[in-house]
Amino acid sequence: MRIEPLPPLQNLIAFEAAVRHGSFTRAALELHLTQSAISRQVAQLEAFLGRTLFRREHKRIHLTVAGQVYAEAVQRLLADCAEVTAQVMTHTGEQELTLACSTGVAALWLGPLIGRYADEFPAVDVRLRVVDGLASLARAEFDLAVYFLRSGSPSGLDGRLLFAESVGAYCAPGYLGGQVLAPAQLLEHRLLMLEDGQRQWLSWADWFARQGVDASLIGQRLTVNHYPVMVDLAIAGRGIVLGWRPMIDGHLASGALVPACAEYVGDQGGYYLLNPAGQFPSRAARAFERWLATQVGEGGR
Predict the structure, then answer these.
(1) DSSP letter string over 77-126?
(2) Which run of H or E residues covers position 217?
(3) Which of 33, 54, 114, 244 makes a 20 to 30 Å CA pair with 202?
(4) Which letter, b or e, does each residue of 136-154 get, where b requires 16 or more Cβ atoms within 10 Å of its Cβ?
(5) Domains along the chain?
């Protein structure tokens, strides 16, 4: 049986963008259209429905009651459609595996592991999606994900803890001349700091507070908005970086980095292996999870 009545899809997309931005102009920028094109699409939708969806007042728009009800349904339906579409596009077989993680996890730990996995299981088609911010990742975009979380799994995801948080201070072997300092002594040296307060990660201020040290006394600092770059700077002898084990372990094993302090901070979060709740994992995902468990048991190196 034919599904009707259905308005044109482009009308719904324009309407949803206008609702989300609260502006025809900003919706037009997102969709690479003109403001008048968005206004026309919304007007066509209103004509189709026979209802006014927006009140237009002094170049501002406000949803009507009917618009609010319709917006909630349309946003939910478009999101569901996008998720199913991504799932069909991404997952075409039991021997395909899509993994997701943040930039730091990819560069320092999961990237090298995936290379080893691909060598051991050449029949599996492995994809890695690097997305900073778990909230930006749609559930249909991955089979398994590795992210740092301050607490348990977010809504819509199941997960298990891979590693509890263990955060120390590290530097190049020659930076401190082989010294291992007390926490307060680190204040006398350049500290490499992640911009935006390291988001939900532990910041230097948090780390020092846990050690009973006044972080306001930090002297030299070099601030970067990309964690792998911070690690490279530390390896180059440009300062001291906070490192999360086992993410930093590869550089410790190679001798590129050494502990700058004997004290560590932990028990405030950890790295989790996540999967979409309610989704039966593919054979490749189940196999990778078993393989990863053996790697974690060996220290993940």
Answers:
(1) HHHHHHHHHHHHHH---TTEEEEEE-HHHIIIIIHHHHHHHHHH-TTSEE
(2) none
(3) 114
(4) ebebbbbbbbbbbbeeebe
(5) 9-90 (1.10.10.10), 96-163+270-297 (3.40.190.10), 166-266 (3.40.190.10)
Residue 198: per-residue pLDDT: 44
Q: What pTM, to 2 d.p., does this model score? A: 0.60
End-to-end alpha carbon distance in the chain: 57
Q: Is 206 left (phi over 0), alpha (psi -120 to 50) or beta?
A: alpha
Mean pLDDT of 35-54: 95
pLDDT at 258 over 80: yes
Q: Compute the distance between CA of residue 45 and CA of residue 295 in angstroms, rounded to an integer.
A: 54
d(CA 295, CA 285): 15
Spatial distance between the Cα atoms of 226 and 234, rounded to a whole number of angstroms:
13
Q: Band of the pLDDT at 239, cuts 50, 70, 90?
A: very high
